[in-house]
Amino acid sequence: MQSTSTVDSPPAPPETSSRTWRKAFKDINDGLQQRQLWAHLGWQDIKQRYRRSVIGPLWITIGMGMTATALGLLYSQLFSQEIRTFLPYLTVGFIVWNFILGCLTEGTEVFIANEGLMKQLPSPISVHVLRLVWRQSLLFAHNMIVYLVVLAVFQMPISWTVIAAIPAFMLLMLNGGWVALVFGIIATRFRDIPPVINSLSTLLFFMTPIVWNADILKSKAPELGWRANLADLNPLYHYIEIIRDPLIGQDQLLYHWIVVLACTIVGWALALVVLRNYRARITYWV
After folding, report:
1. Which long-range contacts (CB under 8 A, 24 or more apart) does 250-259 make?
2. How much of the chain is in helix, strand and coil states, percent to nearest 5?
3. Over the stretch 99-128, which tens digit does the pLDDT of each residue have?
4. Ranges under pLDDT 70 in the chain
């Protein structure tokens, strides 16, 4: 009688590829759980920048106040705007712009600048992105002192809708994360990206309604035609408006929020794809 033996199929080999969605999401989750690390590092960045300074981080507020005042006085005359309404408009726009610019320009070097830390202290790469966003948030908080001063000086009328600026800023922080992640990974591989972004930042500043009002273009719609809507085609304009409108007491427009939410979804989808494919290579590129 011939005996038969059952041969079990060999177990599937463990998943060793670093290009998995599980590892991409785990990196972000682990980074969020290490909030004490990136929060401490972000605060130390601020302290280190103003080390041995008498007034320390207050120089951030003073610099913002001087810049906003000078630009407000100049451009209010150029555009024939009343200073009581134009200076608050410009101040809030400039504060939000500095946060966006910081996430964009410093985001391109977020991994390059932390080369030593990444090699000596293994941690999720999202820690460095969270550190950057947290640092920019602290700078934003310092600059908001200028807004409070302007609010008191011009006695701006605001309503309870000002609280909408809180979820708007949280949404801005969320977008700062994917911007730093995407551009940080790309710039680590291609070192020409940081100078390109720095060169384009000035152009983006003047193309975005910060020192000029988008209503100026819309008022000339019969003359300009489709060009009167150029401001609406600029995503940065919508990011600024969802915070600026409630802070200066203007009515909020739903389409600004829709554009920002759409950019957030698309941006994070792109960030997750980039993180999934190139997360393991960053330490070799820096």
Report:
1. 252/161, 252/164, 259/235
2. 75, 0, 25
3. 999 999 999 999 998 888 888 877 889 999
4. 1-18, 52-57, 221-222, 224-228
Length reported for the chain? 286
Dihedral sign for Cα atoms in the order 17, 18, 22, 23: positive
Instruction: Retrieve residue 210's tokens.
Output: 């910060």
**DSSP states of 120-172 as a string?**
HS---THHHHHHHHHHHHHHHHHHHHHHHHHHHHHT----GGGGGHHHHHHHH
pLDDT value for 265:
97
Q: Contact, 101 vs 239, CB < 8 A?
A: no
**Residue 25, number of CB atoms within 10 A of its CB:** 13
What span, in angstroms and rounded, lies between the C-alpha atoms of 100 and 173?
9
pLDDT digits (tens, 9 = 90+) for 188-202: 999 999 999 999 998
Q: Which residues of 84-101 are buried (b: 16+ CB within 10 A; e: fewer)?
A: ebbbbbbbbbbbbbbbbb
- The amino acid present at 92, given as its one-letter code, is V
So where are the chain's domains? 21-284
Asked if 30 and 126 count as a contact pair (C-beta separation under 8 A), the reply is: yes
Place of tokens 């273009």: 217
How many Cα atoms occupy the beta-carbon half-sphere of 129 within 13 Å? 27
Tokens 């200028």, residue located = 146
Strand, coil or helix: what is 230?
coil
DSSP state of 3: -
Q: What is the 3-state secondary structure (H, E, C) of 143-156?
A: HHHHHHHHHHHHCC
pTM of the model: 0.87
